[in-house]
Design goal:
Strand order of the largest sheet: 1-2
Shape: flat
Number of domains: 1
Largest sheet: 2 strands, antiparallel
Distance between the termini: 24 Å
Strand content: 15-25%
Radius of gyration: 17 Å
Helix content: 40-55%
Number of strands: 4
Order of helices and strands: EEHHHEEHH
Length: 97
């Protein structure tokens, strides 16, 4: 179970429709199949920020799975949490900071 709290409310992500949609996607085809059906995969799933390059192409990731992961993040109010963290708000109740 993944229990996150926000404003003293518990959000069990595993009980959200977004989580169920992610699970319903199941395991994608093999990496060999993913590369053979998408010749542009290596470029599309690689990004660079400053001197760091991240290559996600060799992971079982598809556009549908990526969208579902973003939906799960949205369901957890991740962007609000990030904004609160950068604003210096008290966000970590377990460590009281």
């Amino acid at each position: 179970m993944c229990l996150l709290t926000w404003e003293n409310r518990g959000v069990d992500l595993t009980s959200t429709p977004e989580w169920r949609r992610l699970l319903a996607l199941g395991k994608p085809p093999t990496l060999r199949e993913l590369f053979s059906t998408d010749p542009d995969r290596a470029r599309r799933y690689r990004f660079t920020c400053a001197d760091l390059t991240v290559d996600l192409s060799k992971n079982w990731l598809t556009d549908d799975i990526l969208r579902a992961l973003v939906d799960v993040a949205d369901a957890s109010a991740l962007s609000k949490r990030r904004t609160a963290m950068f604003a210096g708000e008290h966000i970590n109740s377990t460590e009281d900071r």
